[in-house]
Write a structure and sequence with these properties.
By secondary structure, the chain is an alpha/beta fold. 40% of the residues lie in helices and 12% in strands. The chain is globular and about 60 Å long. The two termini are 22 Å apart. It binds D-serine.
């Protein structure tokens, strides 16, 4: 079809597809734990001329001219991040969470060093993956990966078993050079304090991937790893944080030179300055509204966990109240596989992702069609869909997954529910219209 179309017709088709995407999201329940929406103010910054420019290097020391305003915006962003995270040193140049992690690996390790982190099934991020799985740490940086021991009942790292494991590794001369807490599934705070003290006796560097919980840390609702013994924190800026998609690194002054060099010229040249401008604006929103937002996100996730569990769902972490973050993990195996259920829910306009559960590899399930689904409430809370609506959302899940009702029918209920929630909350303008398609050309 594309072959027979003129460039202008193809362009219009692309705009049509983007418009359809906007329509879909404006009538859907977006529950992917790694996504969020940005305010009109952030959008305005993103479409500025910053996006056409280059600013390699550190603010004030760029290797390009024309950066005077960009430098000031980057300086403000760094100051706001220092305040939000009580951090001594901040680098906001990484263009994503993976890039931030890769910069940390580059700053603190060399190829062949051992890194300890969570396996993907237990919540680790793909950028922490082993070489044989194509993960960034193993395949790109050549790290030798060892996993934390994990307690499925607690849905957390097992401190004592991990210490025993490290003592065994010591005998083989394989002490981890870098420890990485955090990751993609993070229901409860990790034992950073307990294990940092132990790892410091080996001079290991302690890192934390806060991509998922950055906004909750900034809002004071989740552990701040820098206050619990971590040397460095990496993150993306668009999950529970209000920013556009990019990354950041927090640390202490003593590590600043190593991190700066690893970021540039290590893993970024230019750093996508339109999203830097967006992040600067998003940081002001976080300072003004982050506390209130983070509190509501955690409250909503906990309430949704209860509502789903009371309808018969196997929501993990029940003994500890299901979650202390924005995420929930549900074992859907008795009703079907995670990938199939993800598709079924999407037909009703409910958008979640399939997710490996800690024990899935033992029951022969892989990431392609695992036994779980992951839910994040951070985007719906920004739309004003808070803890008061948990039962309504849980009913949608029950109808589709347990009662096997026709998703097409539930789609109509989802659409009608969404009619009330059109604008973005926790920002300076009331008019911030979520999922608005901005038309600059006809
Ligand atoms: N894989 C993403 C997630 O946690 O959903 C993050 O990159």
């Amino acid at each position: 079809m594309i072959e027979r179309m003129s460039p202008l017709e193809i362009r219009d088709r692309i705009f049509e597809l983007i418009k359809s995407h906007h329509m879909f999201f404006s009538t859907a329940l977006p529950l992917i734990a790694s996504e969020n929406i940005v305010s009109e103010a952030v959008k305005q910054a993103i479409i500025s001329d910053f996006g056409h420019r280059y600013a390699e290097g550190w603010p004030g020391e760029r290797v390009y001219a024309g950066c005077r305003y960009i430098d000031e915006v980057e300086g403000i962003t760094i100051s706001l991040f220092k305040k939000l995270f009580s951090a001594e040193f901040v680098d906001v140049r990484p263009i994503s969470g993976v890039t931030a992690n890769l910069a940390v690996y580059t700053a603190f390790t060399t190829c062949g060093d051992v890194m300890m982190c969570l396996s993907i099934a237990k919540g680790g991020h793909i950028s922490m993956g082993k070489r044989e799985f194509g993960g960034t740490a193993g395949a790109v940086h050549g790290l030798d990966i060892e996993y934390f021991e994990f307690d499925v009942n607690e849905m957390n790292i097992d401190v004592d078993a991990t210490i025993r494991k490290v003592k065994k590794l010591e005998k083989d001369n394989r002490i981890p050079k870098l420890i990485y807490f955090g990751g993609s599934v993070l229901l409860f705070e990790h034992p950073v304090k307990e294990l940092s003290e132990f790892f410091k006796t080996y001079d290991s560097i302690v890192g934390y991937d806060a991509a998922h919980v950055a906004g909750l840390i900034a809002g004071g609702e989740f552990q701040n790893p820098l206050k619990e013994g971590a040397d460095v924190v990496s993150m993306s800026t668009h999950k529970t944080f209000f920013g556009p998609q990019r990354g950041a690194i927090l640390s202490f002054n003593k590590h600043s030179e190593a991190i700066k060099k690893a970021v540039f010229p290590g893993v970024v040249s230019n750093h996508h300055l339109h999203t830097l401008a967006g992040l600067a604006i998003a940081s002001t929103e976080m300072i003004a509204f982050g506390k209130e937002y983070a509190k509501e996100v955690v409250r909503t996730a906990k309430k949704l966990g209860e509502s789903l569990s009371s309808r018969g769902f196997n929501v993990l972490g029940e003994a500890k109240g299901f979650t202390d973050s924005h995420q929930l993990l549900i074992d859907v195996f008795e009703y079907g596989l995670g990938g199939d259920i993800e598709k079924l829910l999407e037909r009703a306009g409910i958008i979640v992702n399939r997710n490996l559960l800690p024990y899935d590899p033992q029951r022969g399930l892989s990431f392609k069609n695992p036994g779980g689904i992951r839910i994040g409430v951070q985007e719906i809370v920004r739309l004003g869909i808070n803890h008061k609506y948990a039962d309504i959302i849980a009913d949608f899940f029950e109808k589709i997954i347990i009662k096997k009702e026709d998703p097409k029918k539930v789609r109509e209920d989802v659409k009608s529910f969404r009619k009330e929630f059109k604008s973005i909350k926790y920002c300076f303008e009331d008019i911030s219209e979520a999922y608005k398609y901005i038309e600059l050309v006809k």
